[in-house]
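Quarterly update from the structural biology core.
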Amino acid sequence: MEINGVIEKKLRLLEQRLNEIKEWNITEYSNFKSSSLKINAVERALTVCVEIMIDVSERILAIKKLPPRNSSIENFQELEKIKVIQSYARYADMVRFRNFVVHRYENIDTQILFTIITKKLNNFSAFIDEIRKYHQRMDH
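Predicted structure, tokenized:
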């Protein structure tokens, strides 16, 4: 099974967003928390990154002719069950973060945003790698 063109397009967009975040070179919390522009940019970029992951998970389930689950986290649990990803738990916090941003946007802690961009971006890269490796396994 060759990697779906839509999925690959989404993975490339995710890589592009991650590269943009890295290019912003945000390394000092004091500078970050005092810039509403940086805070808003990071919040939006991270939300888009998680949305892409959610879209990819839904697309894979559809390709496998599996119904979508009741929540995005349950979709990731299903991906783990069918051996697309190793552990849904790695991505569950990212989905929870996205849900918090979307529904509780007035309470976003800038320290959480800073921690994600300085310590957790590798979770997005791991997701990209897992999806591509899964499709490589399916091709052979």
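The mean pLDDT is 90.
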